[in-house]
Amino acid sequence: MLHQVVNIAAVTVLGVIEQAYFSLQVIYARRKYSVSPPSTTGPPEFERVFRAQANCSEYFPIFVITLWVTGVFFSQAAACVCGLLYLYGRLMYFQGYSESAHGRLAPLYFSAKVLWTLIGLAALGVLNTMCDLHLGLDALQQLCGFFSPN
Amino acid sequence: MLHQVVNIAAVTVLGVIEQAYFSLQVIYARRKYSVSPPSTTGPPEFERVFRAQANCSEYFPIFVITLWVTGVFFSQAAACVCGLLYLYGRLMYFQGYSESAHGRLAPLYFSAKVLWTLIGLAALGVLNTMCDLHLGLDALQQLCGFFSPN
Amino acid sequence: MLHQVVNIAAVTVLGVIEQAYFSLQVIYARRKYSVSPPSTTGPPEFERVFRAQANCSEYFPIFVITLWVTGVFFSQAAACVCGLLYLYGRLMYFQGYSESAHGRLAPLYFSAKVLWTLIGLAALGVLNTMCDLHLGLDALQQLCGFFSPN
């Protein structure tokens, strides 16, 4: 049972560590640009780091939820590959945004595409399980059987 | 096993898609009112859309967590009904807030009530499972038996 | 099965109720200092309450995710103890921050240490399950056997 989700859990822990790294960067930026809490405004260099972290934080729960639904209802391997790509994209996004507002765009589009893929796979996996439950029809398995008939 | 949570997973995926829709609205509002990142302030029309999305994002993890605890420990059907009502309330909230600060109030109170119901059911389900575990007493099942004795 | 996670679920529900309490405090602060939505700036007293809640909300999904990974892959008891300490630290943080920016520091460091402990235990639990799966080696169980050989 645990073996069926342990790789998703590993990607999740990796994601948590990445979020912790982003949070530490905000703390360093607060010190560097002398922006004391509760203020969240300051020089653009600080605001970019702050917004980069805020944006990653905002999407993190959505990412983790979709990762697990995909991993449980579609395929653990597909979820892990997409998950690692997403975390890589977010790291590039954070570093790009820290340098310039324009630098965030390419990795943002990349991680958005990966997240949409995860959402699509999650929806597919859930729909397939519902079909299987209500109609007794496991479409994904039949499709797999169609492409590899023996 | 998956059949016991597939409907909760479906409501979760629906919620993720709703959050994605809200995020897209913020991107459109940024373009429409020329508010470039990392800035988050601008004309009230933009700030309302921005805050509506921020508020929905903030509550989304709490909603998903409570949905799953209710679905697993209380009843999948009750969780799904509350979940769909909550997502509908949040859509009304987002549209109302986009139009005026006052327009957010009625759907906000509605979705708050639904979320409190979910929290109550989650607490009830967890307490009941704890009673069952520690005292060997499944109060919910006995209560059900009391109202439908045959 | 449910019995193995019911205590984690109880800590989770407690955490959700704490978050709800923080949200209510922001609503009261908005009324007290006359800061109407969508504005999020005002007197420092309001901004401290607002930022305290925003910070707790931001970390809440990370906390819940790490709590569950620790509870499922390492130990339910360890997860619950850390979870309760974290929620207590966050309550102190919220009350301290509401009074002064300096008052947030001690409980912030405390809850950060607890969260890092949870992240460490989650990583340990996941790594151990992966070793067990891929190498057939349950290091944690062997370690326990080493310290209590009979």
UniProtKB/TrEMBL annotation, chains A, B, C:
This is Leukotriene C4 synthase. It comes from Conger conger. Its main location: endoplasmic reticulum. Homotrimer. Interacts with ALOX5AP and ALOX5. It is an enzyme of class 4 (lyase). SUPFAM superfamilies: MAPEG domain-like. InterPro entries: 5_LipOase_AP, FLAP/GST2/LTC4S_CS, MAPEG, MAPEG-like_dom_sf, Membr-assoc_MAPEG. GO terms for cellular component: endoplasmic reticulum membrane; nuclear outer membrane. It catalyses: (13S,14S)-epoxy-(4Z,7Z,9E,11E,16Z,19Z)-docosahexaenoate + glutathione = (13R)-S-glutathionyl-(14S)-hydroxy-(4Z,7Z,9E,11E,16Z,19Z)-docosahexaenoate; leukotriene C4 = leukotriene A4 + glutathione. The keyword Membrane applies. GO terms for biological process: leukotriene biosynthetic process.
